[in-house]
Structure formats: C-alpha cells, structure tokens
Amino acid sequence: MSYPVRYYCPHCGAVVELERDGYLSDKSVTPYPLVGWEYADPAESFENDDADGVHFVCGESDAEGLRWTGEVSEADDVEHPGLESPCGNDVYLSFVRFEDGREVDPVPESEYVDIGSGPRSGPRGPNGP
Ligand SMILES: [Zn+2]
C-alpha cells in the first residue's frame, strides 16, 4: 500500500509528490547530498534498493509515482523564493539511516573535509610573493 508524500524543492519551493511505501523514514530534503548517503534516481526502485535517498532534478525528474504538482511552497526555508520554478537544480531527499541500531547524523560536507585531514596543500588565498 503506497501513498503520496509531498516535498518541496529547497531552492525554489516547487512541490513534488512522490508515491512512497511508507516504511522508510525521511530525514531531510536538501540542496546537496549528505556525506555517506547513496542516492538513487526516482525511476529506480529506491524503496527496495540499498539507496539511502533519492536524487531529483527540480521539475525534470520523471518517474512512475512522481508528480510535479505545479504548486510552489512558501515555507521559510526555501532558499530563493521568487526563483523561476521549477528551477532545474539538484534536490536530495534523504532517508533516515541506522548503523548498529543508532540513527546516523549527517555530517556537513565542509566540516567533514576538514576533520583530521591536517594542513591542506594548495592555495588558501592570495599570499604569494
Ligand atoms: Zn526548484
């Protein structure tokens, strides 16, 4: 038994409806992938797969059970209200993941890169001669 669940694009607020089986919990919808999550295309059978989430392209992804409603959310966390909608940007729907029975917290990409990597080589800014 599946039912439609509504999400909105974090960039422009375009509302998308997705048929879900209901046994996977959603964690978040973000404009970037979470570190450690694996994303499937909505056309794949993500519910039965090992995917940890679904990757959409706003307004362009097309699959059975997926429907762009033409509505635009006015939620406060839409990044660019007034942006042309749908905007064609990447949207990542992440499911809750568990490891060893504990919920995994996503690590923001920027922090993840800096942890334990030591001094990074490469230019850090205009400090040349
Ligand atoms: Zn969008």
Automatic annotation (TrEMBL):
Domain DUF7969 as annotated: residue spans: 1-129
UniProt cross-references to InterPro entries, sorted A to Z = DUF7969
Q: Where is this region: Disordered?
A: 106-129
- Which ranges are annotated Low complexity under compositional bias? 116-129
Question: Which Pfam family, just one, is annotated for this protein?
Answer: DUF7969
Q: Supply the name of the protein.
A: DUF7969 domain-containing protein
